Amino acid sequence: MSSELEKNLQFLCAEKPSVAQVCREIGINHQQFSKYLSGRSRPSAHNLRRISRYFGLPDTVLCGSHEALLKIYLKKTRSLTERRRDPLATAFPGDLAALRPHLGAYQVHFTSTAAPGSIFVNAVFLDEVEGTVRSRLIEVLPEAPGRPRRWTRCDGKVGYQNGRIFVIDNETTDNGSLTMTILVPPHRQNKRYLFGKTLFLASVPLRAPTSSDVVWKKVEAYQSVREIISSCGAFERNSRKLDPLVRGQLASE
């Protein structure tokens, strides 16, 4: 008799172009995965978690009754159909499997006409939420005469299309503006860095549109969001606090 996990996996894979593609996108051995499909073997806890995350389902649902999985799957399908009424629904997230390796926390480095000679550092966090990837950017505004250090928050969406990462975010204030960023995924020897261009409104003069080269540097390990934010702000271009690779990339800006 087929197990519930076996039936659930067979059903979910039937919705994909091929089992081989599923294995590639999960990063799991095809021969081993075939044993799960046939019921000859059960995945380890680690592999079960990878498979369930790929299909966007909790482990308990993937291993639970087939009827329960069908109900949840049909509900998600209806939700996806509704999202597709949005002309950008397929662009965000686009290729979700290709985008997932880039989830996490980053320092965002760029220049601005508001402060020539400086490099600004913000923090951004990319998280998967119900099949989409959301961005949460913390913009740190440095101290100025009569003004203490403060920060603003921008929320947005992230998409992956044709080998590029697209980010559109918006300040969480009534008069907030949109920022658009296009990033190139890293070379295998520089996995911590994303390079690209960002288009935004400068705070002065007259909130004019401006653009800048941008470098996202991944933060591999941190204790808290506060720790990352504490490293943000405005720095002199030759500051030793900045990564030499970042300084070199933004030197001509």
UniProtKB/TrEMBL annotation:
Domain HTH cro/C1-type, residue spans: 18-62
Domain of life according to the entry: Bacteria
PROSITE patterns membership: HTH_CROC1
Stored Pfam families: HTH_3
Protein name in the entry: Helix-turn-helix domain-containing protein
Organism, as annotated: Roseovarius aquimarinus
